[in-house]
């Protein structure tokens, strides 16, 4: 049996950096993304806990080959400001913080090795990059509320793909 902490020969989590950067604003996060390339956000109990536990699909109980994340790099079709994309990505799983489970947002880099059950990227070879402050999450929430129709679904018959 292979080591559950490794995927295709790569550990799920690399040794954490001595200290992670602190992101306190959408502009901080945008600068970090522009400087370092593809980054992701994860809500969990942090890199140290993630290094010692196997990620699992909650519904099936199957082990996942990487850490479930949300991408911070916008898709090519995105034409709005980068800060709008970042706000949206940060807000998608913020509800995980509210579960009183000790989960918080942090930024990481790594190798996409698969897709999870919600089609989210799964990363191995993870490198922790930055802590996300409450100030940043509050700013993201304000931007998200101001520029998006929170929770709206596409209208049927408007050319949108249907599942």
Explain what the structure shows.
This protein has 163 residues and is an alpha+beta fold. It has one domain. It is built from four helices and eight strands. It has helices at residues 26-36, 47-52, 82-91, 134-147; strands spanning 6-7, 10-11, 21-23, 40-44, 67-68, 70-71, 104-115, 121-132. The strands form two sheets. Strands 3, 4, 5, 6, 7 and 8 form a six-stranded mixed beta sheet that branches. A two-stranded antiparallel sheet has the order 1-2. A hairpin with a 2-residue loop joins β1 (6-7) and β2 (10-11). The longest helix is centred in the C-terminal third of the chain and has 14 residues, at 134-147. The chain is globular and about 40 Å long. The relative contact order is 0.24. InterPro entries: DUF6098. Residues 48-67 are annotated as: Disordered.
């Amino acid at each position: 049996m292979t080591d559950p902490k490794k995927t295709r020969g790569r550990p799920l989590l690399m040794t954490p950096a001595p200290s992670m950067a602190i992101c306190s604003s959408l502009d901080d996060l945008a600068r970090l993304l522009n400087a370092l390339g593809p980054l992701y956000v994860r809500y969990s109990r942090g890199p140290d806990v993630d290094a010692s536990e196997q990620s699992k699909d909650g519904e099936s109980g199957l082990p996942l080959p990487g850490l479930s994340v949300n991408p911070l790099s916008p898709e090519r079709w995105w034409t709005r400001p980068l800060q709008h994309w970042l706000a949206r990505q940060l807000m998608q799983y913020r509800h995980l913080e509210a579960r009183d489970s000790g989960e918080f947002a942090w930024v990481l880099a790594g190798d996409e090795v698969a897709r999870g059950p919600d089609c989210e990227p799964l990363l191995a070879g993870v490198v922790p990059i930055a802590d996300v402050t409450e100030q940043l999450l509050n700013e993201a929430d304000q931007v998200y509320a101001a520029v998006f129709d929170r929770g709206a679904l596409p209208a049927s018959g408007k050319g949108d793909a249907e599942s």
